[in-house]
């Protein structure tokens, strides 16, 4: 499982809602246009990108930043609180 920070800048309200709803299936919204998502493998990431591409215009932008475990352990909020490791739970 890989964790990504998914960020987007989408001008159209409807398209922005569609992208947000889809990303919510993969993880947690941490800010209005920022999600921490868990992706199983590179094929799942490619499929998600293809799906999201149908809702974005040329001037819109969606980015995925890979968050390695080491980086997530070093991450904190502005008030120096540790950010919980994601995913918070694994269901088998």
Task: Indicate how many domains the architecture comprises.
Answer: 1
* Strand and helix order: EHEEHEH
Discrete helix count = 3
Q: What's the level 1 CATH class?
A: Alpha Beta
- Summarize the biggest pleated sheet: 4 strands, antiparallel
Structural class: alpha+beta
The gyration radius over C-alpha positions equals: 14 Å
CATH architecture: 2-Layer Sandwich
Q: Could you name the CATH topology?
A: Alpha-Beta Plaits
The number of strands is 4
Mean pLDDT: 86
Q: Share of helix among residues?
A: 25-40%
Structural account:
The chain is 33% helix and 28% strand. The chain has 92 residues and is of the alpha+beta class. It has one domain (2-74): 2-Layer Sandwich (Alpha-Beta Plaits), CATH 3.30.70. Strands 2-3-1-4 form a four-stranded antiparallel beta sheet. The longest helix is centred in the N-terminal third of the chain and has 12 residues, at 13-24. The protein is globular and about 35 Å long.
Keywords summarizing the entry:
alpha+beta; 33% helix; 92 residues; Alpha-Beta Plaits; globular
List the helices and strands and how they pair.
Elements: E1 2-9, H1 13-24, E2 27-31, E3 34-39, H2 42-53, E4 61-67, H3 69-74
Antiparallel strand pairs: 1-3, 1-4, 2-3
């Amino acid at each position: 499982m890989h964790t990504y920070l998914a960020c987007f800048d989408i001008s159209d309200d409807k398209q922005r809602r569609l992208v947000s709803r889809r990303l919510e299936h993969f993880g947690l919204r941490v800010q209005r246009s920022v999600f921490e998502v868990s992706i199983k493998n590179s094929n799942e990431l490619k499929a998600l990108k293809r799906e999201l591409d149908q809702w974005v215009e040329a001037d819109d932008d969606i980015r995925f930043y890979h968050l390695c475990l080491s980086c997530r352990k070093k991450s904190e909020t502005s008030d120096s609180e540790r950010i919980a490791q994601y995913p918070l739970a694994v269901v088998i």
